[in-house]
Amino acid sequence: AGSQLREIFDKINNLLSGKSVQSGGRTVSVTQHPQGLDFVYYKLAEKFVNQGEEEVASHRDAAFPIAVVASGIWEIHPRVGDLFLAHLHKKCPYSVPFYPALKEGTSVEEYQRMLGYQVKDSKMEEQDHFLKRMSGMIRLYAAIIQLRWPYGNKQGTHPHGLNYGWRWLAQMLNMEPLADVTATLLFDFLEVCGNALMKQYQVQFWKMMLLIREDYFPRIEAITSSGQMGSLMRFKQFLEECLQQKEIPLPKGALQSSFWRS
């Protein structure tokens, strides 16, 4: 409910503002230790990214309530935003976007970690689990860039707004696609913030969508094996429907004004 989100937001904001906060049956304050605030900034940013990786990966609609809190905290405490991006880029290089190249002298295991895979006892995680985590983080990022905390300062601008989403999309299309990964993440990104980008960029946005269909999609298709067709077909269907209807629907789970009255 909206009222619960406000409570969570206020608690985090109070903690970062140096006030005493109840947590786990104790009263805590960042002023209790000289590095207290730095530590909390770091851990909070890490927690936001973890929620993308775990929560949003399993429950896609969770992207919006988490993102609106993260965006509001970022606006008041810019340090959290910088650290959020640092954690995000490290865990999901595709959010930069960046595809790490295999350098001489790098072990296979090390390289897999650079690509964002979890490696335990020299065993790499399953591809579908990896994609699910990457999707969760991209969806959270795509939600953050379009959402603002509704009770914040209406004068200021979004600390990391839709222009960053536009840049991400343009940079993705300037890179050679990766099988499975590119189709999955473009679909996730456009499904979550395509509607907002469409409203903001209008004609330019539709030019970009046509470019994806005519030029970029065939390039993804060319490197996709028969076993990786699922994500590609899902993306194709989404593109076709949007271009046909000249509309990108509001994402499922988007927070409507009625939510804040709950």
UniProtKB/TrEMBL annotation:
GO terms for cellular component: cytoplasm; nuclear pore cytoplasmic filaments. One of its GO terms (biological process) is protein transport. Keywords: Coiled coil, Cytoplasm, mRNA transport, Nuclear pore complex, Nucleus, Protein transport, Translocation, Transport. Its main location: cytoplasm. It is found in: Cytoplasm; Nucleus, Nuclear pore complex. It holds the Pfam family GLE1. One of its GO terms (molecular function) is phospholipid binding. InterPro entries: GLE1 (IPR012476), GLE1-like_sf (IPR038506). Required for the export of mRNAs containing poly(A) tails from the nucleus into the cytoplasm. May be involved in the terminal step of the mRNA transport through the nuclear pore complex (NPC). Belongs to the GLE1 family. This is mRNA export factor GLE1. It comes from Sagittarius serpentarius (Secretary bird).
